[in-house]
Amino acid sequence: MKILYAIGIVLGLIILYVIGSTLNKKTPVPEGCENLKVNCDACGIQSCMVRNKNKGEE
């Protein structure tokens, strides 16, 4: 019986993930947030992927 509960919980989480992803894709970008650029000058994390990507664009 414990296995059925575990399978039910996993399936429930997968269903919630799929529903959340679908709703997120359908949500429009808020007005004024279409072309935001990240300002990484104050951030000290050297291994950040966003920071490394932005350095290549400068």
Protein architecture, described:
The chain is mainly alpha-helical and 58 residues long. The model has no long low-confidence stretch (mean pLDDT 83). The longest helix has 25 residues, at 2-26. The N and C termini lie far apart (59 Å). It contains 2 helices and no strands. The chain has one domain (2-57). It is elongated.
Low-confidence stretches: none
Secondary structure: helix percent:
55-70%
Report, as a whole number of angstroms, the end-to-end distance: 59 Å
The chain-level structural class is mainly alpha
Oligomer status: single chain
Question: Mean pLDDT, nearest integer?
Answer: 83
How would you characterize the largest beta sheet? none
Structure, briefly:
The protein is mostly helical.
Topology:
Layout: H1 2-26, H2 49-57
Please name the defining characteristics of this protein.
single chain; 58 residues; 2 helices; 0% strand; elongated
